[in-house]
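Hey all, sorry for the wall of text incoming. These are the two entities for the joint prediction.
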Amino acid sequence: MTPSAENHSVLILAGGRGERFWPWSRPERPKQLLPLARGGRTLLDATLERALRLVPRERVLILTARDLVEAVRAECPGVAVVGEPVPRNTAPAIGAAAAWFQSRGSGAFMVLPSDHLIDDLDAFVADATRAFEAAGSERVLLTFGIPVSHPETNFGYIQRGAQVGPRLHRVARFTEKPDRARAEQYLAGGEHLWNSGMFVWRPDVFLDALEASRPALAAPLRALAAAAADERGFERALDPVFPGLEAISVDYAVLEHAPNTLVLEAAFDWDDLGSWGAWARRQPRDGHGNVLFGDAVAVDCRSCIVVGEGGTAAALGLEDMVVVHVDGSTLACRLADTDRVRRVSEAVRERGAR
Amino acid sequence: MTPSAENHSVLILAGGRGERFWPWSRPERPKQLLPLARGGRTLLDATLERALRLVPRERVLILTARDLVEAVRAECPGVAVVGEPVPRNTAPAIGAAAAWFQSRGSGAFMVLPSDHLIDDLDAFVADATRAFEAAGSERVLLTFGIPVSHPETNFGYIQRGAQVGPRLHRVARFTEKPDRARAEQYLAGGEHLWNSGMFVWRPDVFLDALEASRPALAAPLRALAAAAADERGFERALDPVFPGLEAISVDYAVLEHAPNTLVLEAAFDWDDLGSWGAWARRQPRDGHGNVLFGDAVAVDCRSCIVVGEGGTAAALGLEDMVVVHVDGSTLACRLADTDRVRRVSEAVRERGAR
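and here's what came out:
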């Protein structure tokens, strides 16, 4: 079918493992399946709600890990869920989805990570609508940029180029996760935005861009369109293809090389909830600044995060600490160290492997 | 029967709840039932071993809480175990045991707390033998004093009086748990010993001393001798008596008032394992000074105690901290705060009661 400017779609990427929330997050219960959104909803459920404000249910595709398909289907009934046989990062996943949507005659599709938090749904819908308009009719790769509020070193950054519309610019440059000094410069300079990992583009435009920069990826992904009739058939088609693909992010594989990239500065709130600390910033606190979640006890504590799920977590005489008890595992660390929690989940995994 | 200088006995006091080891210790699994002794043995089992070096099994009595009787019997097969219907501190317990032993024609009996650690068994036996000799034939109340090694504020102290034998003195004065300044004075002065809670005396001598200072306690306890034929009968006899008794320690009720008290300075090692920190001082450490026990992981940690029982405990980037995960509960605190852990177990209990 031919691309249509109206026939929009949404891809939700739900394959991440989110080890930074260990021990709450586990391989079988990654961050997007945790009740981290408002009202105790999972981040994935909240992401699907956003998608359904933009397109009907049958125009949503969720890509996840093969072993998470059942859990994701249970969370998102009636939505197409496809499991990747092996993880290959975002470029192959988005390329496969482009083939899926192309075979359905889709216009532009939006890429949504499933583990971010956005509360202002109306502002999100307004910006997404503008993005669909911009990317539906033109051969552009549109990215969502988030205003920089602190010198974050865990995000990629986008430098704005020439303005082409309200809050809409050409991209001057994509940059990797910067060191602290450079992040401070980006914050002070005012020319940079955070790369949110949310994108809008047409299937044909994306596959053409991929072919230009990574032809070895583009050819087998483009061919998947022939097998995209249903989820099972698509999974069977992925099985022989995915293991041989380069594991690479869409930023590296496509965006840094493409000439036709735009960035829309988001008017909505956004948080990637990258750590226990990021999550806690949005939680209510007791009179001593502690976040107590679930079966949690804090005695003589200040500014601590104490989480007890499936058991009791107790902290005594601590300040700026995280103490988490979830279903048979405990983590204790300083609040300032929560972005290093991945090292613990790795150590636990290695220990189990011995 | 008449008291005999040969017919010694041992009373093991196993009714404590040991909340300082929460969450390892619980009401149903107090400190004396934890594997804190060498080789992963329980403190109670190690205490029984000491007792059996002194007297045959049939001359040991264990007093514990009624709801702990089964657990204690399982740990100490073939030993008389009697459960108190309500806790009434050490004076009523020792008085009841005096009646039990008196009805069996026992000579002196030794009182052993069940939650202390003594590794040098030979030195212990030698000192206990001396104590039995001293207290078996004379009307004295003999206490074991421990050489003071640091200004501990959680112990009572004994001031030595006139020397009456090698390492054996009359007691000049029993003192309460001192404040820090006074504990420093005691340490510097060299006249004080820690009150270990281990004693040797004859049943008749103890009951007479109790009658002199607390007649209202002595009368009903003395009368228990008539019901001391077996454990069940003794328990039935305790039921109507114990609830009405004053809950008071043997130090307050008897020792501080008795004129005939002796103190034997122990030649054996002794530790009351009063906290996680005290326990850890006797455990092996990794290259960074961490004590890792059970399923424990420490990443970038120094001088920490990490315990995982029935689950994984993980610490990240910490120093001088205690992180404990035991069977559905977690504790995190500074090593310096481990003697305040009781406050956490109290808070958890109150929380459960709401």
